Amino acid sequence: xxxxxxxxxxxxxxxxxxxxxxxxxxxxxxxxxxxxxxxxxxxxxxxxxxxxxxxxxxxxxxxxxxxxxxxxxxxxxxxxxxxxxxxxxxxxxxxxxxxxxxxxxxxxxxxxxxxxxxxxxxxxxxxxxxxxxxxxxxxxxxxxxxxxxxxxxxxxxxxxxxxxxxxxxxxxxxxxxxxxxxxxxxxxxxxxxxxxxxxxxxxxxxxxxxxxxxxxxxxxxxxxxxxxxxxxxxxxxxxxxxxxxxxxxxxxxxxxxxxxxxxxxxxxxxxxxxxxxxxxxxxxxxxxxxxxxxxxxxxxxxxxxxxxxxxxxxxxxxxxxxxxxxxxxxxxxxxxxxxxxxxxxxxxxxxxxxxxxxxxxxxxxxxxxxxxxxxxxxxxxxxxxxxxxxxxxxxxxxxxxxxxxxxxxxxxxxxxxxxxxxxxxxxxxxxxxxxxxxxxxxxxxxxxxxxxxxxxxxxxxxxxxxxxxxxx
Length: 472
Hints:
The protein is mainly α. The chain has 18 helices and eight strands. The strands form four sheets. The protein has a two-stranded antiparallel ribbon with strand order 1-3. The N and C termini lie far apart (45 Å). Residues 1-23 have low confidence and may be disordered.
């Protein structure tokens, strides 16, 4: 699959028509399996879930802070200091690498000859490629397009790519609504019946339950709460019948230290010699490894919120630094399945707890309070068996539980902005990194809430309209 890769970050290097020879690349089911494995390798990269997508929405939210000086790796994101000249190119380029790999495979998969016993596997591989393409487009819209609910998806998102393209192609960006309605949702709906329902057979592969969780998330972002609830409930029911289960109160930390845990619907695999490297998320977060970066941790106000209940099981995935909060922040132990070798820890991308929280949020918005209580209490009571919620479940209650459950997993800023809620950031990083005024209050009308398109992409393809950048 490495021959399908290309160097550089510009559009011309991302989707070259000569990247594969269509008559030679995928000729049988073995080739197809190798091809889809190459897609998973791309998700492991620093520009995807192996790295930045696992922390970007945390460090730009209100619950995490960078530890270190202004040159720290997450400093510009923490300070909202990116501009078109120095915006991270890989958050744009890596999804398109994944899309290219997926499109190359999808253009060939129906042409290969298979035995009757191999039809299900061929379909499964096709479903994986469709889900990969949908997820990559969704991530591009989250990072580069304004939230769907801000303007009903009218802002520019990604450009939709559904087939291998010519090297000199200069596409225009589609709107967020077009990306959701014309590609992301249709791809997921097509993929779901093709994907495996078997927990054992789909370890480290997309499965039906991960796809349903993603689809419920997409519908939440879109504001389609009825479908979000439907997909989340089907995810919960189907996944639990397949053997997945919420972590218990007693084994909460132990499950995070285990690869392929009971909640993990899909995770990025890191093994010896095959990892996202020193700049991968496990090495940035890891608090159990002496040679890790220890790049970021909890803000004091969020830690105090969590610690208001000292029996909350989620406190077990924190390690307090020396003299906290005046020196080291509260480090996160969610990336510790590799033992003392941080880089060999897997990265969970889709987890069953999110399905419960998606269901609770959608139900609350639909005024289906009994369901909202049911799904939210499953998370609250697991964290502390002596705690529960009652009465009318509000969006604020659900979002507070999401932040306590999903911190360090890449959700917080997206969760606030997609709901039209302003991010208030009052805490400076330790060691002299102070926030400018422009980084302290962020809402969906603020041009900084999305990233600018890297300047190299715009210069290569003038049809890519840059995101608004500047006070005007």
